[in-house]
């Protein structure tokens, strides 16, 4: 069974992230959405809140998608979860250059056991980022084009609480 890991901060999860999850299920038998717990990063949402949002969205996939959090090296998380594919979404050429470096590092750290697969974003999500969503929410802009409707109230409430 091929197990893929799609790791990120998902602060919040966007329609672009969700699109990559759906596409990755065509490649992997199971996908673990790994929510990074990075204390150096200023996230709007707590780890538990981010996990909750993702679980709400991926519930339709049943046991084909699992949501977990982790600290430390992605390669260690991969070993612990018997995963062999790292899934990365790409928006622009600059993403590719950045991600390619990490792909080589992860391949070397895993002694060639782990491969990285790049999934290009759909056209409508090429520009989309979590930071853009947070900025739009802070400005009171429309969010339905960026995130699932089930998350809008949560994101708007967070934006108001941070003002």
From TrEMBL:
<keyword id="KW-0173">Coenzyme A biosynthesis</keyword>
<feature type="binding site">
    <location>
        <begin position="125"/>
        <end position="131"/>
    </location>
    <ligand>
        <name>ATP</name>
    </ligand>
</feature>
<protein>
    <recommendedName>
        <fullName>Phosphopantetheine adenylyltransferase</fullName>
        <ecNumber>2.7.7.3</ecNumber>
    </recommendedName>
</protein>
<comment type="subunit">
    <text>Homohexamer.</text>
</comment>
<keyword id="KW-0808">Transferase</keyword>
<feature type="binding site">
    <location>
        <position position="41"/>
    </location>
    <ligand>
        <name>substrate</name>
    </ligand>
</feature>
<dbReference type="GO" id="GO:0015937">
    <property type="term" value="P:coenzyme A biosynthetic process"/>
</dbReference>
<feature type="domain" description="Cytidyltransferase-like">
    <location>
        <begin position="5"/>
        <end position="135"/>
    </location>
</feature>
<keyword id="KW-0067">ATP-binding</keyword>
<feature type="binding site">
    <location>
        <position position="9"/>
    </location>
    <ligand>
        <name>substrate</name>
    </ligand>
</feature>
<keyword id="KW-0548">Nucleotidyltransferase</keyword>
<dbReference type="Pfam" id="PF01467">
    <property type="entry name" value="CTP_transf_like"/>
</dbReference>
<dbReference type="GO" id="GO:0005737">
    <property type="term" value="C:cytoplasm"/>
</dbReference>
<feature type="binding site">
    <location>
        <position position="88"/>
    </location>
    <ligand>
        <name>substrate</name>
    </ligand>
</feature>
<comment type="similarity">
    <text>Belongs to the bacterial CoaD family.</text>
</comment>
<dbReference type="InterPro" id="IPR004821">
    <property type="entry name" value="Cyt_trans-like"/>
</dbReference>
<feature type="binding site">
    <location>
        <position position="17"/>
    </location>
    <ligand>
        <name>ATP</name>
    </ligand>
</feature>
<comment type="pathway">
    <text>Cofactor biosynthesis; coenzyme A biosynthesis; CoA from (R)-pantothenate: step 4/5.</text>
</comment>
<keyword id="KW-0460">Magnesium</keyword>
<dbReference type="InterPro" id="IPR001980">
    <property type="entry name" value="PPAT"/>
</dbReference>
<dbReference type="GO" id="GO:0004595">
    <property type="term" value="F:pantetheine-phosphate adenylyltransferase activity"/>
</dbReference>
<feature type="binding site">
    <location>
        <begin position="89"/>
        <end position="91"/>
    </location>
    <ligand>
        <name>ATP</name>
    </ligand>
</feature>
<dbReference type="InterPro" id="IPR014729">
    <property type="entry name" value="Rossmann-like_a/b/a_fold"/>
</dbReference>
<feature type="binding site">
    <location>
        <position position="99"/>
    </location>
    <ligand>
        <name>ATP</name>
    </ligand>
</feature>
<keyword id="KW-0547">Nucleotide-binding</keyword>
<feature type="binding site">
    <location>
        <begin position="9"/>
        <end position="10"/>
    </location>
    <ligand>
        <name>ATP</name>
    </ligand>
</feature>
<keyword id="KW-0963">Cytoplasm</keyword>
<feature type="site" description="Transition state stabilizer">
    <location>
        <position position="17"/>
    </location>
</feature>
<dbReference type="GO" id="GO:0005524">
    <property type="term" value="F:ATP binding"/>
</dbReference>
<feature type="binding site">
    <location>
        <position position="74"/>
    </location>
    <ligand>
        <name>substrate</name>
    </ligand>
</feature>
<comment type="function">
    <text>Reversibly transfers an adenylyl group from ATP to 4'-phosphopantetheine, yielding dephospho-CoA (dPCoA) and pyrophosphate.</text>
</comment>
């Amino acid at each position: 069974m091929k197990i893929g890991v799609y790791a990120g901060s998902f602060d919040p999860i966007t329609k672009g992230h969700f699109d990559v999850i759906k596409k990755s299920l065509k490649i992997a038998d199971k996908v673990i959405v790994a929510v990074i717990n990075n204390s150096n990063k200023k996230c709007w949402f707590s780890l538990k809140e981010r996990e909750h949002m993702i679980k709400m969205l991926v519930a339709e996939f049943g046991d084909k998608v699992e949501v977990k959090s982790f600290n430390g090296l992605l390669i260690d998380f991969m070993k612990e979860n018997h995963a062999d594919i790292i899934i990365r979404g790409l928006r622009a050429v600059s993403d590719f250059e950045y991600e390619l470096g990490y792909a080589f590092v992860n391949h070397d750290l895993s002694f060639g056991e782990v491969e990285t697969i790049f999934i290009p974003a759909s056209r409508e999500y090429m520009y989309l980022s979590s930071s853009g969503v947070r900025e739009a929410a802070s400005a009171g802009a429309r969010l339905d084009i960026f995130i699932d409707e089930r998350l809008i109230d949560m994101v708007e409430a967070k934006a108001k609480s941070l003002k």
